[in-house]
Amino acid sequence: MKKPIKKRTSLRKAARAHAVFFLISFGLYITLCAIFTPSFMLADMHSKSKALADDTITLVAKVLAPPVQPIISGSAICTNGNLSVQLTWPSDENSESFDIERNGSTLITGLTNINYADTALSTNRTYNTYVIIAHGPMGPGIAISDPLSITNPDACSTPLTPEEKILTLEARLIEIYGDTPRILSQKPSFSGRTNIPFAKIFITLHSDQVITATTYANENGYWSWTSPVELDLGAHTLSTIAVDPNDATVTATDTFYFEIVPVATSHKDSDDNKNKSTKKTTATNRAQSIPIAPQAIAPFIISASITNADHSVFSGNELLVNVDFLKKSQSLENKNYEIFYDLLDSENNLVAETSENINISKTNSTLKKITIPMLTPAGNYKIFVKTYDGRNLTSGEDFFQIKEFPILSVGNTTISFTQIMQGLSWIILALLLAFLALLGIEHHLSEQAVFQITENYLRRKGFFTKRKGVQR
Amino acid sequence: MNSNLELLSHLFIILMALFAIIYTFGVVWRVEKKLDISFKFFLVSIISFTLSEITAIAFPAGIGLPQLLITGLKIIFIIFFLAGTLEMRSMLRRMDGEIKK
User: Fold this and answer.
1) Using an 8 Å Cβ cutoff, are B60 and B7 in contact?
2) Domain count, chain B
3) What is the pTM of this model?
4) Final residue of a domain: which of A159, A174, A192?
């Protein structure tokens, strides 16, 4: 009778040992969880359950790498007297789009091809230098190629037939959109290119309201512009005129039709556009145009230009903005218009603003002096001048650079705020050394002290006296 | 606030705080009894304040652990500052005769 009991006892012992082992292990696990926060336990349990659930599922995912640095190759060719440069670079699955810079300024943005023919070339230069900037979603997001200089052939003349093209809408090439470009953004951005360097670009955006604007192309003829106000949903027509700054009779124009649609419509249309993505429909986009109501013509256009030397100004100094009012209507209302001056940084953030009232019927231009705030960081900025005439917005913009004012100038050597900030580690080291030195001096001085000062010592020395008029 | 101006302000605060640490050490080394205790409290509070400012510069985003550290150091600062003030107040009340020894 005792033997079976013994067996049961040994079983119980084994069960107890197992239970103790389990409890110790579990306690250890809980202790670890308490140390590494409860989220550790949740994450661990989650991963364990996922591992159990997913052990039969194989997931294959490809992780994109940062964009690869493009290697440009290209050559200049002369066909029937027309100079062009053919550029090409290797395809890269990690890059979504490419920008091209020519001679340090933007030439075109948002390219998805891996080749480009630059035909807007001047024979005044013996060579042009190109840089490709690849944009991708991973890593730093960009990769910049080494510059490539291409020498122009000697016997090639470029007859300048003025050209102007609107190239991108919302940073995507217009061709990509299909028949009718449809977008969601009610403040769309555009860019284009003309073969007139530094051309003045007159922009007119027709919709329920008319927006007129002026901006400038860079030396490569590249320009970009973003609608300063939210546009209504529906159809819009953008017209641009590029005017040679040296000869106002040399002009080129382009017109572009697009629609702003609500979210649901856009999704449906984007699927349609994907099906038609191989179609080149530039001509269709440009041929269509919504009718423009005769009364919807802006009575005047604003043209802003910076008159500071080299289009640059020191922070704290005055920016000189010359504003021309190009009147389109003889019967301009005899009233004051509020002219707004917005100082915007390269990301269109407002840095400073001011306004003034001007009776445009009595003047053709005005010179506005705007003081740049003292602590404005150095960089590229633009002045945006605008006014409203009823529902219509008229604006003009020009670009300039803010240079940093030197804090210290000795001969040809200048020290600016940025340079001081760049030497911050040395300043911190110097501060630390000064701190230790002062602490050492203070300790040495305290060692020289004769008395250990206490409150009683202070009382004896008369630092504390009885106040008058106190009842005790 | 302009980021440059903000950084300059932090540096100025740290510079002043370092001076405060040095001279508070000087007082601590020279005094005894309750004066000593109260100034030691002040010293701890100013050191934790300085560390919180340095942390704020080192981690400008101020999220997660750095934010927790900054808040913790500021709590230490105010607790020790209050302790120092109460110690000094207690000493003055005793000397003033409000509290019997």
Assistant:
1) no
2) 1
3) 0.55
4) A159
